[in-house]
Structure formats: C-alpha cells, structure tokens
User: Fold this.
Amino acid sequence: MSPSRLRPLAAAATVLALLLPASAHAVLAVGAAAPDFTADAAVGGRPFRFRLAEALKQGPVVLYFYPKAFTRGCTVEAHLFAEAAERFQAVGATVIGMSNDDIDTLKRFSVEACRSKFAVAADAGGQVIRDYDVALRLVPGTMADRVSYLIAPDGRIAAVHASLDPDGHIDAMLQAARRLQK
Assistant:
C-alpha cells in the first residue's frame, strides 16, 4: 500500500485510540507492600475513620478503587460488591471502596449504591490514589482508575484485578480471598 493511502488509516487509528478507553492498570505487584492509610469513610450513611492497619488485624482487605460515585459503571460495581458482601464476610475479608469524592457524597453513595453493606472512603486529596498508582490516565488529576487489590493481613498485595469493566472485580477478589484463606 502506498504511503498516501496509509496516512488516513493511521489517522483513523489514532482517533480511535484516543476515543476508546484505555485499559486499567495497576503498578503495585502481587507481593508488594500495600501503603498504609487512614481516610474518612462512610457505611450506611454514617461517617467514620477507616484505618487500613486496624482492618488488616481482622483479616484481608479488598480495597477497590473506582472513578466517581453515582456514575453508571461505579454504581454497577458498588451494587455487585453489595450483593457479594456476605460471601466476602464468609472468607473473613473486609471490603472498602475508594474514590476522590468528598465524604458527603460518599455518605449518600454508601446507602444508595452500596446498600449499607460495606464502606466507601474519601481520598479527596488523591494521596492514596497516588500511593497505589491507580490514577486514571485519561483524566488529569486524582480520579481513580478501576482497580481492585486484595491485601493480606501481613500488609502485602495478594491479588490485583485491573479493568475499566466493573464485571470481574468481585469474582477475582473472591477467588483470591478463598485462596488466601486456605
């Protein structure tokens, strides 16, 4: 094919690459130390301080990052985690979602989308998002990508699932939590 015929194809490929969502990523590898954090959180509309170190004393923690409360994909994912809450409890895992939304938004989200089944934490400054290297690359700033981590009680990353599609996060984390339990 001549170079003049390839240029329009290359331009079209570039436009498609910019319009299609990039795949999610996770830089923290299995076995890496999970950064400790304390954050304002809410469950059932009630605010509290979530401390990762304290939660890990009770068992593994599923820390899932999502871009924005009350958006379609994030609401679907919250519903899926809520439906699976008892299965996570059965394997001794605590679930906590995290975004850069403010705590007032998350108080409502914890009731409406999370169905008061698990906590969501506010990372308004984006420090935890940066520490876990899950910033959404398509949107400058501190919006989180859709990444789930299973953190073992020893504070190490036991599993990672990174996908912009909300489907798959729950199954991946449940399977990993069951493996960790054995």
About this structure: The chain has seven helices and seven strands. The chain has one domain: 23-181. Strands lie at 38-43, 46-51, 61-65, 94-99, 119-122, 147-151, 157-162. The domain at 23-181 is CATH 3.40.30.10 (Glutaredoxin).
